[in-house]
């Protein structure tokens, strides 16, 4: 039996620790720093790599990293040096996410389909370039910017302003020292996640996130207001194309460049005229996508994590999935993604029906009660035999949870229904 340490504190980490704790090979699952829903919380922050390594060593832990920041900071390299088992990509492999420029150049030299682009560090040159184009663009800061460093532009003027924001005003600090200006691809967006050991990549599941705060994709971007899996937007034929021409090609190209990619490889995909383009890579599970995907897993997740670390995924049976759909509705605090209140008591957890599960994100537990502690507070996740019934089940469970500041989108999954 092994102990597991899950690093992070969101809905993704609650879902991972929930699933890992069901493994017959896993003893105790610790979460650092965790939230009001996770068990065995350890108060070490995700950027305290020494503290995490120390804890993992003392408690004989297999470590699983949820968020991108510690991966980009080299947590896997550090643990490897200390001979501590850890699931996730090395710092070099994490460049697929931590430098959008590195990723775009990688895709270009390996002929992985992505929007055409140029790179700039000089605002004037960038502006001249935009003026010379006859299509709309997206302006992206190179580095990690907590999901805020991408500006999708509707006009030349917006693109010029975006260049000012990132390169001149430095709104995203050093993450914006260089920018990508790329063609805006108008299509349908979906996510595709696989699990790799550096050699082979096992498809996890397709999913679709809902980034904007309001229904019908209006209002500002958020960390994600809900997700469902699988998405009918990616049918079997398209899944095969993405698996072979994007995921496996990426893993092989990384290997050929001397970088073994171990961990979750997440491709953000835009589909235009039936053809998939990579908008970005993430080197970890998405949140909220992790929540519906985890609920559909019909296999021992620990086995696959351990095999990824040891480079023996090809010896495992294909991952089996519940045939049901899963839908996750994120409950946020009113006002998010701007200002919102915290410390509001939340109730109703005892009335959640079977087949649904409430993953915690921005919550904390005090005297046995649950209080809000962040913008995205809970992920109410439910299974259903059809997408429509999974949506109905998720919303019915959503009604059981009450607090004064509860806000959620009413249309999670609706985009998928139109494809069925
Ligand atoms: N080339 C593009 N064409 C159209 N939309 C894009 C393009 N690149 C990004 N986007 C939109 O911007 C969002 C954020 O961009 P992404 O590259 O995923 O960065 P991040 O998740 O780091 O903010 C995407 O989910 C997508 O909706
Ligand atoms: Mg993204």
From TrEMBL:
Coiled coil: none annotated. GO terms for biological process: 'de novo' IMP biosynthetic process; purine nucleobase biosynthetic process. Keywords: ATP-binding, Ligase, Manganese, Metal-binding, Nucleotide-binding, Purine biosynthesis. Residues 104-310 form the ATP-grasp domain. GO terms for molecular function: ATP binding; metal ion binding; phosphoribosylamine-glycine ligase activity. PROSITE patterns: ATP_GRASP. It is an enzyme of class 6 (ligase). Its EC number is 6.3.4.13. InterPro entries: ATP-grasp, ATP_grasp_subdomain_1, PreATP-grasp_dom_sf, PRibGlycinamid_synth_ATP-grasp, PRibGlycinamide_synth, PRibGlycinamide_synth_C-dom, PRibGlycinamide_synth_C_sf, PRibGlycinamide_synth_N. It comes from the Archaea. Pfam families: GARS_A, GARS_C, GARS_N. It catalyses: 5-phospho-beta-D-ribosylamine + glycine + ATP = N(1)-(5-phospho-beta-D-ribosyl)glycinamide + ADP + phosphate + H(+). Signal peptide: none annotated. The keyword Secreted does not apply. Pathway: Purine metabolism; IMP biosynthesis via de novo pathway; N(1)-(5-phospho-D-ribosyl)glycinamide from 5-phospho-alpha-D-ribose 1-diphosphate: step 2/2. Transmembrane segments: none annotated. Belongs to the GARS family. PANTHER family: PHOSPHORIBOSYLAMINE--GLYCINE LIGASE, PHOSPHORIBOSYLAMINE--GLYCINE LIGASE, CHLOROPLASTIC. This is Phosphoribosylamine--glycine ligase. It comes from Candidatus Nitrosopumilus sediminis. The gene is purD.
């Amino acid at each position: 039996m092994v102990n597991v340490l899950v690093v992070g504190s969101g809905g993704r980490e609650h879902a991972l620790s929930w699933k890992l704790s069901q493994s017959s090979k896993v003893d105790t699952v610790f979460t650092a720093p965790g939230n009001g829903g996770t068990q065995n919380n350890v108060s070490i922050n995700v950027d305290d790599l020494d503290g995490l390594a120390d804890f993992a060593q003392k408690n004989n832990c297999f470590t699983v990293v949820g968020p991108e920041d510690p991966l980009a900071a080299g947590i896997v390299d550090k643990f490897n040096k200390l001979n501590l088992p850890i699931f996730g990509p090395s710092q070099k492999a994490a460049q697929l996410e931590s430098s959008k420029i590195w990723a775009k150049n990688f895709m270009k030299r390996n002929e992985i389909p992505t929007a055409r682009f140029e790179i700039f560090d000089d605002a004037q040159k960038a502006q001249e370039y935009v003026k010379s184009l006859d299509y709309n663009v997206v302006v992206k800061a190179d580095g990690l910017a907590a999901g805020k460093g991408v500006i999708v532009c509707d006009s030349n003027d917006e693109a010029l302003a975006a260049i000012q924001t990132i390169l001149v005003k430095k709104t995203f600090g050093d993450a914006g020292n260089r920018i990508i200006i790329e063609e805006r691809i108008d299509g349908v967006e979906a996510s595709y996640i696989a699990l790799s050991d550096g050699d082979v990549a096992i498809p996890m599941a397709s999913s679709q996130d809902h980034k904007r705060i309001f229904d019908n994709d209006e209002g500002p971007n958020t960390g994600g207001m809900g997700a469902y899996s699988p998405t009918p937007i990616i049918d079997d034929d398209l899944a095969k194309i993405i698996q072979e021409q994007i995921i496996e090609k990426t893993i092989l190209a990384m290997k050929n460049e001397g970088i073994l990619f171990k961990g979750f490889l997440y491709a953000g995909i835009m589909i235009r005229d039936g053809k998939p383009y990579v908008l970005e890579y993430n080197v970890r599970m998405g949140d909220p996508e992790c929540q519906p995907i985890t609920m559909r897993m019909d296999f021992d997740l620990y086995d696959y994590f351990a095999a990824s670390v040891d480079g023996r995924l090809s010896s495992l049976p294909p991952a089996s999935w519940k045939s049901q759909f899963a839908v996750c509705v994120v409950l946020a605090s009113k006002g998010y993604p701007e200002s919102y209140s915290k410390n509001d008591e939340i109730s109703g957890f005892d009335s959640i029906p079977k087949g649904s599960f409430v993953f915690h994100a921005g919550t904390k537990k005090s005297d046995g009660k649950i209080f809000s502690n962040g913008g995205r507070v809970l992920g109410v996740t439910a299974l259903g035999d059809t997408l429509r019934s999974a949506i109905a089940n998720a919303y019915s469970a959503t009604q059981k949870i009450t607090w004064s500041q509860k806000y959620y989108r009413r249309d999670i999954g609706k985009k998928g229904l139109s494809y069925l």
